[in-house]
Design brief:
Length: 338
């Protein structure tokens, strides 16, 4: 069977499945029936608007998603600058198997979008069929994710990014293993001031949070015990958009912004470094170096466009038009606005 036929079969299976059931039958009744309560929780949540929903999907459907979760390496196991890493992402969600085709059909269905809108009070939500940045996510032992705010516009459609939906698929997970989703007040603050809410990534737990300029989130390093090294942190990430956004919430376009983790509190004058301390320091320095390199590569990418703009006739005309105003304005500022 060719790839195109193979994908068509999955699409047809998803369509037939939703002919027999309403799309919200894939969600647990206890979740569907609590929409108004979930909305109140979302609106009042701290440090920013979010809601946690346990037992989100129908149990059998969740088991099917677990069984068809792609093997590590089938996705894109590379970091932000293209180097091999310990996180794999597969954005081809509808074609991972029959259960993922059904999930995709649910995620883009108008009934589900309206359900999400009812919980979050964000109407007219739009689904991203390309799953840019989303899809299945798998993180191995030793992986972590620095606190960050996400890119705020879709890189192709230019739509406003509004919601993150994360569904965890980890039947066995303990809080002390790390990997809990952390929601921050502001990671730029001192650690004692940055109040953090942790959400353990247990199976069939869904988290919905508003994507904004203050929705800082990440997770601490996964540290599995010796007899659990075969496990990994698995999840499905889906992002929703709108054509418009309230003016007071709109910011200039930016990519994902990371804040490197600070040095551990245990490091102080007189402290004797252990091997694990040295390893952690090396990791922190390497990550900072990687982010500097990422910014450097991005500047190289943008520089040609800036040069073209500065050399354009329209920009030169603009400079000619404002030049007569600049000198009087500078004179006025030096004498009256000190």
């Amino acid at each position: 069977m060719g790839v195109r036929q193979y994908r068509t079969v999955y699409a047809c299976q998803a369509t037939r499945y939703n002919d027999r059931l309403t799309v919200l039958d894939l969600i647990q009744p206890a979740v569907r029936d609590r929409a108004d309560e979930l909305s109140r929780e979302f609106q009042s949540a701290q440090p920013f608007r979010h809601v946690v929903m346990d037992d989100f999907l129908a149990p059998e459907f969740c088991r099917e998603l677990l069984a068809e979760f792609p093997a590590f390496g089938c996705g894109q196991s590379r970091n932000e600058i293209g180097e091999p890493g310990r996180k794999a992402v597969n954005s081809d969600l509808p074609h991972l198997g029959p259960s993922y085709a059904r999930l995709d059909a649910m995620l883009r269905n108008r009934e589900f979008l309206e359900f999400m809108g009812r919980i979050t009070s964000i109407p007219h939500l739009l689904y991203d069929r390309k799953y840019v940045g989303g899809g299945t996510h798998e993180n191995l032992d030793g992986q972590d994710l620095d606190a960050h705010v996400d890119f705020n516009y879709h890189p192709v459609t230019r739509l406003h990014r509004r919601l993150n939906l994360i569904i965890f698929l980890n039947p066995e997970w303990r809080e002390e293993w790390g990997g809990a989703l952390e929601l921050h007040v502001n990671p730029w603050l001192a650690e004692q001031e940055d109040r953090v809410k942790g959400i353990v990534p247990v199976v069939n737990r869904a988290v919905v949070f508003e994507t904004s300029e203050v929705s800082w989130h990440g997770f601490k390093r996964i540290q599995l015990p010796a007899d659990k090294k075969h496990l990994s942190r698995r999840s499905i990430a889906v992002y929703y958009y709108t054509r418009r956004r309230p003016a007071e919430e709109t910011a200039p376009e930016h990519s994902t912004v990371y804040v490197p983790r600070p040095l551990p509190d245990r490091l102080h004058a007189g402290y004797t470094l252990r091997q694990e301390d040295v390893d952690e320091l090396r990791s922190l320095v390497a990550r900072r170096d990687m982010q500097i390199r990422f910014l450097y590569e991005r500047e190289k990418e943008f520089s040609p466009a800036v040069r073209v703009m500065l050399g354009s006739k329209s920009f030169k005309l603009y400079m000619m038009l404002i030049q007569p105003v600049q000198k009087p304005w500078s004179w006025f500022k030096t004498r009256h606005l000190r």
